[in-house]
Automatic annotation (TrEMBL), chains A, B:
The gene is npdG. GO terms for biological process: copper ion import; NADPH regeneration. GO terms for cellular component: plasma membrane. Coiled coil: none annotated. Residues 5-104 form the Pyrroline-5-carboxylate reductase catalytic N-terminal domain. This is NADPH-dependent F420 reductase.
Length: 223, 223
C-alpha cells in the first residue's frame, strides 16, 4: 500500500477530524489544517491520543490550512460550503490531487435539501476544479458520518466510498485511500460532474438519520 | 398485508414491466398501461406466464394508460422523462396515490448525468404533483434495475427502496408496497423535494454499471 502525506483542510471540524483519524489509522501521515495553527495542533493532539496503541498508524500534526498543503500529496477539502470558494482559491493547490467531500446543503423547517450550484449544473467539487485549474479534483467521502468515523469500528465495512473524477490516476489514488475508511477500495462512480449527484445525496441521509435515529451511510449493491 | 390494485403507466417498458411483475408476485392486482391496449395486453400475457406457479400472485392485465388508472388505488409512473409532463397531465389521477420512479437523465459521450429540472429546484416527481394537484405523488423505485427486477431472485434483498413524499399515509402505502420488491418495507427518505436527489442518482449507478459490468443498486447502511 502506498502511504500518503495528506492535508485535511478544515481538519478541526467533525468530518475532517474523523477522516484524518481514519487516514492516520491506515498508516498515512496527516496534517490537520485550520484557520489558526493552535486550534489545529490541539485537534491533532486529540487524534494522536485516540491513535495510541494502533499499530502502524501515521502521525497527525496541525498547521494553518495553507501550511498544511505545503508538502502534501493529497489535500482533502472538508470545509463548510459557506466560504468554500474564497478559501479554496487562496490555497497553494497547484499540482496536487485535491479531494472534495464538501456537501452544499440548505436547511429549512422541512429539513435538509441540496443547495443549487450554478443553476443545477455545478457542484462544490467542480467549483474547486475551476478555481484551481492546476490541481486535480476528485470527489469522495461525502456520505460517511462524522460520528461513525470517530467511532470504535475497525472499518466502516458496511459502507462504500463513491469516488468521482476526470483523471484516472488521481481517482485510483483516492479509491485506494478509501480502504483506510471502509477496509476496501472506493467505487469508481464516474466523472467529476457526478459530484452534482453525490453531494446533495447527503440531504437524503440526513432525512433518514432524523427519521430512524441513526447515522446512515451508502452501500452499493452488486459491485 | 394490504393488497392494492396498481396501474403501471408505461407498463410495457423494462422498468414498468419489471416492477409490475414484482408487485403481482407480491399478491397485488396489476394493470399494465400503454399507449396501445394490445401492446399492454401482450406484455401482461408475458408477465402472467412468468408468474405461473407463483403461489398467491395477483393477476396482470393490460389496458391503455388512461383506462389502467380507472380503478387503481396506486398508479406507478414508469415512463421516460421525454413527454412525461404531457402524459401525466392527460391522465385521470385525481384522488389517487401516484408513485414516480421517473429518472430525468441526459447522456453524452462522457456518460449519463442528471437532467436539470426547473433550474435545479425541481424533479419529475414534483412536476407530476404540480400537474396533478389532486393526486398525492410519492417518489420511489428509482434505483432498481429492470434486469434485476425481471431476474430469478425471490427478492432484491440486497437493495433498499428509498421513498420520498409529503403525505405520511401515501408514503406508508408505498413503503409497504416496496416489500414486494425487496422483501422488507421501503425507507422513509424525507419530503417529496428530495426526489431532486434520488432521480439523478441513477446516473451514478449507470456509471458504476458501465465500469464494473454489473446491475448495481442502493443499500442504506445503518437502518
Amino acid at each position: 500500500m502506498t502511504t500518503y502525506r495528506i492535508a485535511v483542510i478544515g481538519g478541526t471540524g467533525p468530518q475532517g477530524k474523523g477522516l484524518g483519524y481514519r487516514f492516520a489509522r491506515g498508516g498515512h501521515t496527516v496534517v490537520l489544517g485550520s484557520r489558526a495553527a493552535e486550534k489545529a495542533e490541539a485537534t491533532a493532539a486529540e487524534v494522536t491520543e485516540r491513535l495510541a496503541g494502533v499499530e502502524g498508524a501515521g502521525t497527525v500534526t496541525g498547521a494553518t490550512n495553507a501550511d498544511a498543503c505545503g508538502e502534501a500529496d493529497l489535500v482533502l477539502l472538508a470545509v463548510p460550503y459557506d466560504g468554500h470558494d474564497e478559501l479554496v482559491a487562496s490555497l497553494p493547490l497547484a499540482g496536487k490531487v485535491v479531494i472534495s467531500c464538501v456537501n452544499p446543503l440548505a436547511f429549512d423547517k422541512r429539513g435538509a435539501h441540496g443547495l443549487v450550484i450554478d443553476g443545477g449544473e455545478g457542484s462544490a467539487a467542480e467549483s474547486a476544479q475551476r478555481l484551481q485549474p492546476e490541481a486535480t479534483v476528485v470527489g469522495a467521502f461525502h456520505h460517511v458520518s462524522a460520528v461513525t468515523l470517530w467511532g470504535d469500528a475497525d472499518f466502516l465495512d458496511g459502507e462504500d466510498i463513491l469516488v468521482v473524477g476526470d483523471k484516472a490516476e488521481a481517482k485510483e489514488q483516492v479509491m485506494e485511500l478509501a480502504a483506510s475508511v471502509t477496509g476496501r477500495p472506493g467505487i469508481d462512480s464516474g466523472k467529476l460532474r457526478l459530484a452534482r449527484q453525490l453531494e446533495p445525496l447527503t440531504a437524503v441521509l440526513i432525512s433518514i438519520n432524523r427519521k430512524y435515529k441513526t447515522h446512515s451511510g451508502i452501500r452499493i449493491h452488486g459491485v
